[in-house]
C-alpha cells in the first residue's frame, strides 16, 4: 500500500471538512456540482486500469473459496443489508438506499492491504477480484430495482444511464488503454509510470470529488447531522454479523487460517467509490444517499483495521495451541 493510501480515512475526513468550508464561499457552490462526476470517472478509470480483468478465469481456481465468496457477497450480503435497513432505516428511505448500495458492492482495492496485514492468502484474495468487480457492476442496479423499484425512488432508465456513463465508459477506456499499451509495446511505460500514478491518484481524485460534493451539497450534512448515529448501528451490526458468517463458512469448509482470513476480509470490505459514482448520477436530487456512501468508509476502514488485528490474535492463539 503506497504511503498516501495509508491515510485513506484521514484524507476523506479532510475532504469533507474542506468541502464544507468551500461551500461557504459565494459562487463556488453552483459550479462545484459539475466537477463531481468527472473527478469520479477519472478515479474509476485508474481503479479499472489496475484490475487484471484478463485473469477473470483464474478466479475459479479454488472452487471452494470462490463459491463461499460468491454466496456471501452476492446472495447473503444483499439480503442482510436489506433486512437491516428494513429494521433500522425504514423511516429514512434515502439512508436505507445508500446503506444497501454500500453493502452490496465488495471492495476491489484496500481489502488486499488488510488481508496482508492479517497474514491472509493475498494471492487468493486477488484472484477473486475480477469476478467480484464484474458481478457488482451487473448486480447493483438489479438489487436497487428489486428492493426499491416499487417505492418510486429508483428510476430504472436513469439508473442504467448512470451505469453506462460513470462505470462503463471509464471501464472500457481503461481496457482500451491497456490494449493499446500492449500492442504498442508500451508495457514498461504502463507498469512503471501509468499504473503507479493512478494507484496513488485514485484517492486524490476521490477526495476531489468529495470536496466538490460537499461544497455543493454540504448544507445537507450540517442540517442532517443525525445521519451519523442513525447509520452507525446498522453498519456495526453488518460488520459483526458478516464477520461471524465468514468465520462459520471457513469452519464448515475447513479452510486453513490464511484462506479463512482472506474470506473474512473479502466479504467485509466494501466498494464505496463505485456506489458513490452511481448515486451521484442516478439520484442527483437526493444527496442523503451519497452522504451515506461517504460516511460509510469513515467507519469501515477503522473496523477493517480492527478485524485484521482480531484475525492475527486468532492466528497466534492457534499457533500457541499447536
UniProtKB/TrEMBL annotation:
* Cellular localisation: Cell membrane
Q: Which domain of life is it from?
A: Bacteria
User: Keywords assigned by UniProt?
Assistant: Cell membrane, Membrane, Transmembrane, Transmembrane helix, Transport
What sections of the protein cross the membrane? 7-28, 34-53, 65-89, 95-114, 126-148, 154-173, 194-214, 226-245, 265-283, 289-312
Chief site of localization: membrane
Q: Which residues form the signal peptide?
A: none
Its membrane topology is listed as: Multi-pass membrane protein
Q: Which family does it belong to?
A: Belongs to the arsenical resistance-3 (ACR3) (TC 2.A.59) family.
**What's the protein here called?**
Arsenic resistance protein
**Native source species:** Autumnicola patrickiae
